[in-house]
Design a protein that fits this description.
Elements lengths: L8 E5 L5 E5 L3 H9 L3 E5 L2 E5 L6 H17 L4 E3 L21 H4 L11
Parallel strand pairs: 1-5
Antiparallel strand pairs: 1-2, 2-4, 3-4
Length: 116
């Protein structure tokens, strides 16, 4: 059997609808998953890697696809459920997040009366 037939890390949608990563996840793979938005939760049987709940399927699909691309770039064998693939499959940059404009980040001067 080929290594591609049995991926070392699988990213799937669980029975409860959550997106989770399972398999041979070492410290570096865990760091890549965290960078892609996954959180880790210690459990009795090990560590559970999952995306946050209730952020929408589009968001989950984008982050699952991005994490699979990062893991593959690091030479991990990754299996990604077909229903988690985002459209279009552009994984050259992380998924976009709302950004504040420069005007919103700068402080606006307050209007005061003349100094005495």
């Amino acid at each position: 059997m080929n290594d591609a037939d049995h991926p070392h890390i699988r990213i799937t949608r669980g029975e409860g609808g959550e997106v989770e990563a399972e398999g041979a996840i070492d410290q570096f793979a865990a760091a890549l998953l965290q960078r892609a938005g996954f959180i880790s939760q210690p459990m009795l049987w090990g560590t559970w890697y999952r995306l946050p709940f209730d952020l929408g399927k589009q968001w989950e699909n984008e982050h699952a696809t991005y994490s699979a691309a990062m893991l593959r770039a690091a030479r991990y064998h990754v299996g990604l459920d077909p229903d988690l693939r985002s459209d279009p499959p552009d994984t050259s940059a992380p998924p976009s997040t709302p950004r504040r404009t420069k005007a919103a980040m700068t402080t606006q001067p307050t209007l005061r009366g003349p100094r005495r």
